[in-house]
Design brief:
The complex is a heterodimer of chains A (313) and B (539). Chain A is built from 13 helices and two strands. With 313 residues, chain A is mainly α. The chains are: A mainly alpha (313), B alpha+beta (539).
Chain lengths: 313, 539
């Protein structure tokens, strides 16, 4: 069985036998779109994530106010209040420094998405490279890379993050690096396992027999066939990384306090929660929850779609 | 997959409910049970008073006390020669009297009879001399209040034993606040401390005060118990426990729940929750801590635009106009303040100096004139602004507001909020915070010179800016010739004028102090932030 997203083998499809043998296969994107249209919740998840991406990209156009503009005398105004200093409306209220919660929420989506995607991309690429190298090369290199992964797995992530951030200093780039460090092991282990499984197959042996080089085998034959599980893991990981970013920002280890992030907004709300200023925690909390939920639903659907055994259930 | 989606939505709904309920709930549900349990236990256990502060002690070395939070604990373990009362009077404590030599450079203290340290060793003049000699010994590397501030400020020379009960402190100059400064040195016994290594001493304090050490669990609490044979104080509680709770909202929740009796630094937005809880209240006092933004002028910042800029007096003056201090006080600190015009607490300040008003247009005009016009991108220069988190009242909000005001007049501020204990304090001690940094330094109402002692020398441990105004330090030297309050006042007023015109600090406010106090505890906070629990008693 192969896992190529580009060219799923016909033998793996249960309905293939009923189709005319020369009939053109639909493109994987079309198949995905059709599958998505049939499933209600994944479609909603995709739409909400697409909306989030649009919001993140168009933050300056969509935000009703400068997210960092403070109006001290307008602090802690409830939702739908009028900012008497600027004349604008605090649709979701103002925070402890009189900043517009909605605008900070909109700009915060940039950080959450950027950090989530960048950390998964960096950690994923690094992990896949090491995993495929370990799986294909085997021997001592395999041992070395996997022991390195074991060492990191034995280390609590938050502790590792605190150590790295204390050494490197807080900041967006360092935050991405820390979160990427936390991700690579997962990808490395999966990529290694899949690579070992693929390299024993006949088509790889055949390629070797006709003199195809290792890098070409890995790049052209193995990688496309191990991508599916990695894509599924990545979709779940983006959600996990967004939560980790929120946790680190909540602990004050994320980005500087003036940079709006959802986790940072939650952290800043702590001192005011006991005073009943609920909007400071609820809106960023809901934003995190909806994003993570959408990513998890999308991950579930991707897993089902990319697995031929589950695709048509 | 449907199952997992359903489970996902249920989890999401539960999370939302949790979020909303945590936002709306003022009193933790466990509060009554905890109170009842505490009440049941109280009959069997010794009376314990629990105080929650934001920071832990860095160690238990009496010569290395660096913060008010630490000295609050140490002053219960260690007695001093004299002590400063809540009203600012300096009254005898271990010593019963003192005399000053004609030169004003020697103070001889006569100790009370029958004093002992907590290990039973008699406390004599030799122990007092040892306390000062040990603190001054460079080999020990102490940088705390005694070594880094008191000894610098009095220009300590030597401590001489005159008799069993008489000891003389020799100073390099006459200093009017010397008695008050010497009253900050925690007296400990020679035999016990000379037998311990520095590491042992920092873990096993042997004190001389009304409470003795029981246990320190790092980042959790310090527990003290009543010293049985201590006769200089009557104390109501058998044990006092100092808990470390960095999070202000957690301190508040613990107070409301009845798990602690007194909390410090209550944020303004939580006053209502405490006052409405029915079992605790907030008491505020006008504090004496001078809050300021320091302009660190060390050469290490010369390669930055901001480091260069703040070396220019005109820039430092211009920035005084950029910040609206009364609005910060009113909105973020819940009190109406008058902006400070100097580093000295009223009534000892120079009343001729008018605090810089908030006038951003003037700030911009002065910055233009100082050679820092706005560039094409609208900024004048980049500058780093460092601050610690969680030490002062609403500190993160205050520094963000300050950064906004400075940004408004064209500074490109890189605000760096650091962990107080592990990052900011070590850098502050090494004079490596800046070029801008936010800090507060404890003051008093009993002496202008005491408040000014932070800047006793260009390289004094507490002169974090390494400000080196020649006129200021010339006048500082003249203070030792002023033997009456009137002539001293003339000099201090002149010095404060010098400081006003060549400010090493961006003057802010004297920080108010808000304490949450359980309803069953009778205790009055002091203006000078000293949390003196010997005056506390059950209602």
């Amino acid at each position: 069985m192969t896992h190529s997203i580009q060219q799923p083998p016909a033998v793996a499809r249960p309905d293939a036998a009923r189709q005319p043998i020369l009939r053109k296969q639909p493109s994987p994107w079309l198949s995905a779109w059709r599958s998505l249209l049939r499933a209600r919740w994944p479609l909603l998840a995709v739409l909400s994530l697409a909306a989030l991406v649009v919001v993140a990209l168009l933050s300056p156009q969509l935000a009703p106010a400068d997210p960092n503009r403070q109006y001290l005398i307008q602090r802690l105004q409830p939702p739908l209040s009028v900012n008497e200093a600027s004349g604008g409306v605090y649709w979701l209220g103002s925070d402890g420094l009189g900043r517009d919660v909605l605008s900070r929420l909109i700009y915060g989506s940039r950080v959450s998405l950027a950090v989530g995607v960048a950390a998964v991309l960096i950690g994923g690429l690094f992990g896949v490279f090491l995993g495929v190298t370990a799986g294909y090369a085997g021997g001592r290199l395999d041992d070395l890379i996997m022991r390195l992964a074991d060492v990191q797995l034995a280390f609590p992530f938050i502790l590792l993050a605190i150590m790295v951030l204390v050494v490197l200093g807080a900041g967006l780039l360092n935050l991405v690096i820390v979160l990427a460090i936390g991700q690579w092991v997962t990808y490395a282990r999966i990529a290694r396992g899949e690579t070992i499984s693929q390299k024993r197959k006949d088509y790889i042996e055949s390629a070797r027999a006709i003199g195809v080089g290792s890098s070409r085998i890995v790049g052209r034959a193995i990688l496309p066939n191990i991508l599916a599980p990695l894509i599924v893991i990545a979709s779940f990981n983006v959600a996990g990384v967004i939560l980790s970013e929120a946790s680190l920002s909540f602990l004050g280890l994320g980005v500087p306090p003036e940079v709006p992030t959802w986790g940072g907004m939650l952290a800043e709300s702590r001192d005011q929660l006991l005073g009943g200023y609920w909007w400071l925690a609820v809106f960023p909390g809901v934003a995190i929850m909806l994003t993570v939920l959408s990513l998890n639903i999308l991950g579930d659907w991707l897993r089902d779609f990319l697995d031929p055994r589950l695709r048509n259930r | 997959m449907r199952k997992s989606i359903r489970a996902g939505w249920i989890s999401a709904a539960l999370l939302l409910i949790l979020l909303v309920s945590s936002a709306c709930t003022a009193v933790p549900a466990a509060a009554p049970a905890a109170s009842e349990a505490a009440a049941e236990e109280s009959s069997a256990e010794p009376a314990r008073l629990v105080v929650a502060q934001s920071v832990d002690v860095q160690g238990l070395e009496p010569s290395n006390v660096n913060s008010r939070a630490e000295s609050n604990i140490f002053q219960h373990m260690y007695a001093t020669l004299f002590e400063i009362t809540a009203s600012g009077a300096i009254v005898p404590y271990l010593a019963e009297s003192y005399t000053v030599s004609e030169s004003g450079m020697e103070m001889t203290f006569k100790l009370r009879e029958g004093l002992t340290c907590h290990d039973g060793e008699p406390l004599t003049a030799e122990d007092v001399a040892y306390t000062f000699q040990r603190a001054a010994d460079d080999a020990n590397g102490f940088t705390g209040n005694t070594a880094g501030f008191v000894l610098d400020a009095i220009q300590y020379q030597d401590a001489r034993v005159e008799s069993d009960l008489e000891v003389t402190i020799v100073m390099g100059r006459y200093s009017s606040p010397a008695l008050g400064l010497i009253s900050e040195a925690y007296i400990h016994c020679k035999d016990s401390y000379s037998a311990m290594s520095l590491e042992d001493a920092a873990a096993n304090p042997i004190g001389s005060g009304p409470y003795r050490f029981v246990e320190w669990v790092k980042d959790d609490y310090v527990l003290l118990e009543k010293t049985p044979d201590f006769t200089l104080r009557e104390v109501a509680y058998d044990e006092i426990q100092w808990k470390v709770i960095p999070e202000a909202s957690t301190r508040t929740a613990e107070l409301i729940a009845g798990n602690v009796d007194i909390i410090t630094n209550v944020p303004p937005d939580q006053h209502e929750a405490i006052n409405n809880s029915g079992n605790a209240g907030v008491t505020g006092v006008a504090g004496t801590r001078r809050m300021y933004v320091g302009f660190n002028q060390r050469a290490m910042f010369d390669d930055s635009e901001g480091g260069q800029a703040i070396k220019n007096t005109a820039v430092r003056v211009a920035l005084q106009y950029a910040v609206d201090v009364p609005t910060i006080c009113k909105t973020l600190l819940a009190f109406e303040c008058e902006r400070a015009s100097s580093m000295v607490n009223p009534p000892n300040n120079n009343t001729n100096l008018v605090a810089y008003p908030y006038d951003p247009a003037k700030a911009e005009e002065l910055l233009d004139a100082a050679g820092y016009p706005r560039k094409e991108d609208g900024t004048r220069f980049d500058i780093t602004f460092m601050a610690g988190r969680g030490r002062y009242l609403n500190d993160v909000a205050v520094v963000q507001a300050l950064a906004q005001y400075l940004t408004d007049v064209g500074l490109n501020v890189d605000l760096q909020v650091m962990d107080w204990g592990s990052e900011f304090v070590p850098a502050l001690r090494a004079h490596e915070v800046g070029p801008l940094y936010f800090v507060g330094t404890g003051g008093g109402t009993w002496s202008a010179v005491y408040d000014m002692s932070d800047l006793s020398a260009p390289t004094a441990a507490t002169n974090y800016t390494e400000w080196n105004n020649a006129e200021w330090f010339e006048l500082w030297d003249q203070l030792s010739d002023a033997r009456d309050p009137e002539s001293e006042k003339v000099i201090t007023d002149k010095m404060l004028e010098v400081m006003y015109n060549d400010p090493p600090w961006l003057f802010l406010y004297f920080q108010p102090d808000f304490y949450g106090i359980a309803g069953d505890v009778n205790w009055q906070p002091r203006r000078d932030e000293i949390v003196d629990l010997t005056t506390a008693s059950p209602q």
